[in-house]
Design goal:
Number of strands: 11
Largest sheet: 5 strands, mixed
Strand order of the largest sheet: 1-11-10-6-7
Order of helices and strands: HHHHHHHEEEEEEEEEEE
Low-confidence stretches: none
Distance between the termini: 59 Å
CATH topology of the largest domain: Immunoglobulin-like
CATH class of the largest domain: Mainly Beta
Number of helices: 7
Mean pLDDT: 79
Shape: elongated
Oligomer: single chain
């Protein structure tokens, strides 16, 4: 068995295993990687003839993966997203052909490989460093005390929040159901004052707020049971109305409400309330409010 066959088996097996893992979290990419891995394996490669050069196919795959990476990381680390977009477009053969015809200058194959490799390293390293430090480039991290009013302004969305209270409970049900509470469950119940400072209404979903552990290992969205908090008792306010497919519950411009949200968490950790930097809040700073240890 020559070196080329050994490398084909090695990369084919590794890509096939990676494809199987990606099928769980990112099915479209997993299918693509799995097919490429299987095609590289010598027994399959000998039986299936595809009139496409390996370099051409690799260029398309690399460019596509970089663009997909950019889509997932840009809202968290814009700098990494920009690098990935530029590198992904540069890796695509039609883009390079256009640049060659426009500039009348053609880069060698290994030069292209080197540029794309540097893009992969720089974009992934930029994203890893920013996320490891729990920071997004160009944004600040701010910690507020309970009772302190803070503003989340991302341009389109402008809201003011005040965490008024935080409680722990094994159930958020009322009446006889509280006696049958599941002792293995624990909820952090947070009462918020929310002010809409923008000129347009806004809506809330389960992913708009989160309870995160202080070590960054755990993050919990709003529990669906929040909708079961129909009235204030025994909390300071009723549950926050969440927008659903069948209901567009919203907070109008200039409106101020006090509402309760619940997070089902693990015990033995210290948690903070935060507004994840996604969706309408992607342009905002990181804000945290300590909720205490559970």
């Amino acid at each position: 068995m020559n070196i080329r066959a050994v490398l084909a088996w090695l990369f084919g097996v590794l890509l096939s295993l990676l494809g199987l893992l990606l099928l769980i979290s990112v099915p479209p990419i997993g299918i693509l990687v799995l097919l490429v891995g299987l095609y590289i394996l010598p027994p399959i490669n000998r039986k299936i003839q595809v009139n496409i050069s390996s370099a051409w196919a690799l260029a398309w795959i690399t460019g596509g993966l970089l663009l997909l990476f950019a889509l997932t990381i840009t809202h968290l680390v814009p700098a990494a997203g920009v690098i990935a977009v530029v590198g992904g477009l540069f890796a695509l053969p039609p883009v390079r052909q256009y640049l060659t015809s426009w500039t009348d200058f053609e880069l060698g194959r290994w030069t292209v490989v080197g540029v794309v490799f540097l893009v992969i390293v720089s974009s992934s390293a930029t994203a890893a460093i920013a996320l490891q430090n729990n920071e997004r480039l160009g944004h600040e991290t701010k910690v507020h005390e309970p009772g302190e009013r803070f503003t989340v302004d991302s341009g389109e969305t402008n809201l003011a929040f005040t965490v008024k209270a935080a409680n722990k409970t094994h159930t958020i049900s009322r009446g006889p159901d509280r006696e049958r509470a599941d002792s293995e469950k624990i909820y952090l119940v947070v009462t918020l004052q929310i002010e809409n400072l923008a000129d347009q209404h806004t809506t809330f979903t389960t992913s708009d707020f989160a309870a995160v552990s202080d070590d960054g290992q755990r993050s919990y969205e709003i529990a669906e049971e929040t909708a079961d908090i129909r009235s204030a008792d025994p909390y300071e306010a009723q549950g926050l109305e969440l927008a659903t497919i069948s209901s567009d519950r919203r907070l109008d411009a200039g409106e101020t409400v006090t509402r309760t949200v619940a997070f089902e968490v693990e015990t033995g950790r210290t948690y903070l309330f935060t507004i994840p930097a996604t969706g309408p809040y992607s342009g905002a700073d990181n804000h945290y409010v300590p909720l205490g240890k559970v």
